[in-house]
Amino acid sequence: MRTLLMRGALGVVLLVTLAACGGSSASTDTLQQLQLKADSWDIDQIEVAIHKALTLKDIDLLMSLWAPNATLSIGPELTASGTNEIRRLWLEESIAFEPTTHLISDHPAYKVRITVSRDRGTLHFECHMVDFETGEMVAVIEADLDVARIDGQWLITNMVGGSTELTP
Length: 168
Description:
Layout: H1 2-21, H2 24-56, H3 59-63, E1 66-74, E2 78-81, H4 82-93, E3 103-106, E4 113-117, E5 120-131, E6 137-150, E7 153-163
Parallel strand pairs: 1-7
Antiparallel strand pairs: 1-2, 3-5, 4-5, 5-6, 6-7
């Protein structure tokens, strides 16, 4: 019985080893799928960090998400290029960074859309700005972002934001 058990265990080890060595196309497909999921996760973390930064009024966290030569457009009238201009625009034009506001940046996760193609991707989300003290919705914003993997980190290269209507 012990010999049978040992042979069975060795057979399983041999099968696992052969499966790992053979079928490189299946392994490549699996690795590509895993990389796609990892990249999608990393891109989604940009959206999570944006909401956290807006809620906490953490401009340094927000700016850590931008590529050096990125652009930001809000509506047809506000455009900023480069991190210095983008920082200024957030601090001077965003209701989230006004000293007297206490907003929570919430988001309907089911409206997030992410695409990935090698080292480039897109991210779309809504941002619901809720007054912490009254619980009232102050603004509903949507954003379309182009992102890129730069030196191993996903960063925003372009963001276009604007107001939108609440819809399910």
